[in-house]
Amino acid sequence: MRRRDFVQGVAVLAAWPLAAGAPQPDRVRRVGIVMPYAKGDTESEAWIQAFKQELAHLGWVDGRNVQFDERWTNDNMDTVRSQAASLISSNPDVVVATGGRVIPVLMHLSRSIPIVAPGVGDPVGVGDTQTLAHPGGNVTGFASFELPVLTKSLEMLKQIAPAITRVAMIYNPDNPSAAFYRRTSEAASRPLAIEPVDAPVYGLADIDRAVTRLADSQNGGIFFFPDVTTSLLRNEIVALVAQRHLPAMYSYSFFVRLGGLAFYGANRMEMFRLSANYVDRILHGEKAGDLPFQQPTKYELVINLKTAKALGLNVPQSLLATADEVIE
User: Among 48, 88, 271, 284, which is disulfide-ready with 109 (CB 3.0 to 4.6 Å)?
Assistant: First the structure.
């Protein structure tokens, strides 16, 4: 073999791992973040901070070997689409994103850039993946709950407020998961002798009307499905519900800490921490499609006893005994 041919062969072999997509430890990696919340929103910023801290524990230090590109879009789909397009065009190594209306936008823009979603209502049902165990595409992450949790939430609301006979199901119909939430909750309502009241909303005015209509009838309650629209309006919603003197079950614990009645569901901050592990594995060469969508292994019950007393409700001791947090 001629020396020149041997040197060329060695060069090809040396370059092959990089061409095959093997990790390049000396390169600063770029992690995109898309959050459909306002910059400065305390809860969602705490989620991102938890994600970054966990990633730092895994050796990815901001400014040294990783760079974050954050896009805070608020609840505005035009902004979501423009910011997502801008981010994807910059070709990040991986994107972390949440929101039932956000993930489809990113998937439309790229089928190759890995996407980690820390909290999806029904990944299979909305089309984020074909199976939980083997996603196969470029999206993976963590389901925010299993649909039977909606049934359990309604059961708990009925236990706390046994007189309720009508419950408004409040959701944003633009959320792809809303159809699954509705079907599951409507089916769960019948055995509880609850009439489900369909209440699609797009903003505070719609929520105000839905709450007012329910308050005008007797024995009403409210169930707020998981959605960015309602979570961003949490202060206004808790005030409205308190003003109308209605028992309500929420899908985020921060509602209860603000004065809402009860929450049952997974710990969202924990999902962001767990997502750091998936981002770490992807940055080390694993494919998003090989990482299974994980479902929560633990659910939390948070009850605001002060609010229950203001509503004249006696929370069963069996619920208080199993609650992870009781606010008095």
Answer: 88
